[in-house]
# Entry
Amino acid sequence: MTTYRPARRASLVARLKLPAALSTLSQAAAWLDEHGCVPVVEHESARAAGLETRYATTARETLADDVDVVLVFGGDGTLLDVATAVMHSDGDAPLMGVNLGRLGFLTEVGKADMQSALDLLVTGRSHIETRAMLEGRVRRGEQTVDTRLALNDIVVTRSALSRMTEMTVQVDGAFVCDVKADGLIVATATGSTAYNLSAGGPIVHPTVDAFVITPIAPHTLTQRPIVLPATAAIVITPIIEPQSEVIATFDGQYGVPLAAGDVVEIRRAPRLLRLVHTSTRTHFDMLREKLKWGNG
# Structure
């Protein structure tokens, strides 16, 4: 982690359908305004919170432009969604999540701790962590159907009414295995504590430069999760039978329906996401607190 400069201009964005997120955004904007940091509120968040005429606003696509930090009010899903928007933009401001959801593993700042976290931001006493993201590309013949980024995971999975899906997996051009399962998760170290963990995959410390491939409810017990270097180029080719529905999902936020012959190519995104760290809690503290890991 590296120490980050004092924040003098901050973007704010909230989960629109969560009143607590909107009210907390308003409180944070007022606090920042009083302490020498200019708040810039995302258009839809400003409208929902009634702040259109009080502060400057910005489009979602330019949240990270010309600011020192992007503040996200909601839960982990909100931060995942905003992280993708930031990584697709030209700006490179780090993100800090204020948790108004349930788990809050990525949005580590609680509402009760928000003011002290903001004080660390404006006085230059916060720290920056970098996280690798996945870039997934769906190819249909010579055509690229869609390209998306994911902080946690990219999952190739069947729909609720489909049977098990068969998939061929390649890494760096070499055949790895054929998988018959409900789906396949490719997770970053950050995402190892998300869907990957629920499916029986390993916990990977977020500073480890690695990806995890984990089958979901595999047909045989011999198909186990595998950890790969983050430089690996992963190609998943699902065998899609008539009447079957197979989807590639990105952080559980966006899905691309796949057709027979489609290929999902996954590699490390060219840019690193930056997250603000204001707490003294370690990753192991978070595991014990949020996931009850190691509690006897």
